[in-house]
Amino acid sequence: MFTGFERGAFEFFMALQFNNNREFFHSNHAWYQASVRGPLSALCMDLAPGMLALDGELEVRPSRVISHINRDLRFSRDKSPYRDYMWLGYHRTGWPKRDCFHFYFDISAQSAHAGAAMYGDDRAWMDGIRRLIREDPARMAALLESARAAGFELKGQQYRRIARPEGLEGDLARWYACRSFYLERDLAPRELESAALVEQLLAGFGALKPVYDLMYQVRPERAPDAGEAGLRRIMDAPDADDDL
Questions:
Q1: What is the pLDDT of residue 86?
Q2: DSSP labels for 93-161?
Q3: Which residue, of 97, 133, 169, 216, has the fewest CB within 10 Å?
Q4: Tell me, what DSSP letter sits at residue 73?
Q5: Strand partners for 108
Q6: For the segment 195-211, what is each residue's pLDDT rounded down to a tens digit?
Q7: Collapsing DSSP states into helix, strand and coil, what is residue 84?
Q8: Residue 109 sits in which domain range?
């Protein structure tokens, strides 16, 4: 059962920032397990029923939801072996991440956030949002206002040059110009240190569900990738111990 993150979690991430090497991690593996991995696993398990109530297709197994602390050095300019943050990411089971609008929670030494996001730039998907903004701006503005009332801020990179419909203002104009977007809320330390974080996260994700559902309604149809079947086999394989 999740009882909150203790100060040791933030202190571990801070120490890792200054000692990002295998020797430090191996000698402090028990600290990592007790203060970071253990609480994240408990949080993930306590969130699972509520997440499935939001979307029955979500992957909720901890091995698929909890990020790896090991950095994949093959594709990273940063060659430090470990991330100094971790997250929970809720994607639909068996779907490529690029096709998922997903819920997430992340934590580091300095901050923590919760929200819902696209995985990366996707013009075809965002064109569906732009079409709905043109057709029914009042409805789309109401969706953003509902998210804002729950504490979530619209973020994302925008096209520098894009023709906007006349009369669009504020967040609706920014949403229209987005290459991709996410809705995010900062979490205060007192929230992270309480078992009530479970219900707070579920309430926040629930407030984002109208946008979440809309994103799947406008998701473009795509031809399957050649390697998608292989990727699904990899996803279904048991994880190696990536925390050693």
A1: 98
A2: TT--GGG--EEEEEEESS-EEEEEE-SS--HHHHHHHHHHHHH-HHHHHHHHHHHHHTT-EEE--B-SS
A3: 169
A4: G
A5: 85
A6: 999 999 999 999 999 99
A7: coil
A8: 7-222
User: Helices in the chain by DSSP H: which ranges?
Assistant: 7-18, 22-27, 29-32, 38-54, 62-65, 123-135, 137-149, 170-177, 189-192, 197-217, 228-236
pTM of the model as a whole: 0.90
* Predicted confidence (pLDDT) at residue 157 exceeds the cutoff of 50: yes
The C-alpha angle with vertex 41 and arms to 199 and 104, in degrees rounded to 5, equals 55
Query: What is the torsion angle, in degrees rounded to the nearest 10, for the CA atoms of residue 68, residue 74, residue 75 and residue 81?
Result: 50
CA within 13 Å, CB half, 142:
7
Look at residue 227 and tell me if it is in a domain: no
**Residue 240 maps to a domain:** no
Structural domain contains residue 237: no
Greatest extent of the chain over all pairs of C-alpha atoms, in Å: 60
Tally of domains within the chain = 1
Distances (CA, A) of 233 to 27, 62, 92, 99: 34, 18, 15, 17
pLDDT tens-digit readout, 75-118: 777 789 999 999 999 999 998 888 899 999 999 999 999 999 99
In a domain, 238, yes or no: no
Query: How much is the pLDDT for 224?
Result: 58
Write out the H or E segment, with its range, that includes residue 86: strand 85-90
Q: What is the pLDDT of residue 188?
A: 95
Nearest CA-CA partner of 112 in 52, 19, 36: 36
